[in-house]
Write a structure and sequence with these properties.
With about 425 residues, the chain is mainly α. It has a single domain, classed as Proton glutamate symport protein (Orthogonal Bundle), CATH 1.10.3860. Helices cover about 75% and strands about 0% of the residues. The radius of gyration is 22 Å and the shape is globular. It starts with 5 loop residues before the first helix and ends with a helix. This is Sodium:dicarboxylate symporter. It holds the Pfam family SDF.
């Protein structure tokens, strides 16, 4: 008999938790402690995981990748990720998927939420005074900033392979940290089921209403983001929009159905070269790097989740908190690793860092597979459009596939204009 996938087990755990919470009510709410233990186990690993993953990703690059081409790639990654995070935050504020829903834990949790600092303090707090204090406190932003700088220095110092042992040690620690997360994720069906029992037992069916609204808003936000990217790249790289959409059709289908950027990568690299005209050199640098460091869909997801959670718990979104949300959504993508439940791990990073109620993670965990469909599509499209833009800048973009895929009248117009 075929074993159920982790995603299927998590969904069963969520459904079972909802049913138990509805049937037995507050008298069974104490089972939530199992979910709290699960969340703590996830949270205890994420700082180490991010710290090592960012250092390894940057320090392991070829030196030429940290030069002009690397800076250009990083700039495009940053632009598209910020656009995605801003769209997620704005759509959350416009459609307000968490508004008008009262949960039983609102009053207790709202009192514990940290007062966000002003904008100047927010920016200053990106930079650590003491990395050990940042690691101890779980300050993810400061840890990532230090890891980026350390990774750059290690990359430059290791040109003659003097520090290969340091890089090897970091890689081995990352492998062990990843295995630890994967081990803990085996407990996810029970942990998430217990969290759902606690939430539903205290709040009833009202706790389920934000989920459907969230998926609808997230789906619409993803479509909007893709439209912005396609129009931007069509204009920037001077390629026909019809040919661009045709070239992306298989990439998006594979991403949607597999919900995995890693699984989509071979098709993404093949179609980027054959159907979208990106050279092998750009292809081999940008797309694997994008899978490790660039997660547009995740940034949008995290920003939208934070907007919804502030509405669920009646927390006012100040300018400082909005900057924190967008910044953390962007920076959290740098620590993304290919492990089961990556969206859940990201939530375990950003929700506590912002001082938001951790109970909200349970609400989103049960629909992580559906959210992952939209996340993966946005991720792979963001990576591939970046590759097209850079190939265009470097005169390494073959536009012939676009013309062949475009309507006949476009091809005639293009031929007559030459």
């Amino acid at each position: 008999m075929k074993r159920l996938s982790l995603t299927s087990q998590i969904m069963l755990g969520m459904v079972g938790g909802i049913l138990i919470g509805l049937l037995f009510g507050p008298q069974i709410a104490g089972i939530k402690i199992l979910g709290d233990i699960f969340l703590r186990l996830i949270q205890m690993t994420v700082v180490l995981l991010i710290f090592g993953a960012v250092i390894e990703a940057i320090a392991g690059l070829e030196s030429q990748a940290l030069g002009k081409l690397g800076l250009k790639t990083a700039l495009w990654f940053l632009i598209t990720t910020v656009i995605a995070a801003v769209i997620g935050l704005v759509m959350g504020q416009v459609f307000r998927p968490g508004a008008g829903i009262t949960l039983a834990t609102v009053q207790h949790q709202a009192a514990t939420v940290k007062t966000p600092p002003d904008l100047t303090t927010t920016i200053l707090n990106f930079f650590p005074q003491n990395i050990f204090a940042a690691l101890s406190a779980g300050n993810v932003i400061q840890v990532i900033v230090f890891a980026i700088l350390f990774g750059i220095v290690l990359n430059r110092a290791n040109q003659d392979h003097e520090f290969d042992n340091v890089l090897l040690l970091i890689r081995q620690i990352n492998q062990l940290a990843t295995k630890l997360v994967m081990f803990i994720m085996r407990l996810a069906p029970v942990g998430i089921g217990a969290l759902m029992v606690g939430v539903v037992a205290n709040s009833g069916a009202a706790a389920l209403l934000p989920l459907l609204k969230f998926l609808i808003v997230y789906g619409f936000s993803t479509v909007l983001f893709l439209a912005v990217l396609f129009l931007l790249i069509s204009w920037y790289a001077k390629v026909p929009l019809g040919g661009l959409l045709h070239g992306f059709s298989r990439i998006m289908l594979v991403a949607l159905t597999t919900t995995s950027s890693a699984v989509s990568l071979p098709i993404e690299m093949q179609d980027a070269h054959e159907r979208l005209g990106v050279s092998h050199r750009i292809n081999q640098l940008v797309l694997p790097l994008g899978m490790a460091l660039n997660s547009n869909g995740l940034a949008m997801y995290l920003a939208l989740v934070c907007a919804m959670v502030t509405q669920l718990y009646n927390i006012q979104l100040s300018l400082g908190l909005m900057v924190q949300i967008v910044s953390l959504a962007v920076l959290a993508c740098l620590g993304t690793v290919v492990v089961p439940g990556g969206g859940l791990v990201a939530l375990a990073i950003i929700i506590p860092t912002l001082g938001l109620p951790t109970e909200s993670i349970a609400l989103l965990a049960g629909i992580d597979w559906f959210s992952g469909m939209f996340r993966t599509v946005a991720n792979v499209v963001g990576d591939t459009t970046t590759a097209i833009a850079i190939a265009s800048d470097e005169d390494e973009l073959n536009r012939q596939p676009y013309l062949l895929a475009s309507p006949r009248r476009w091809r005639k117009h293009s031929a007559s204009s030459k």
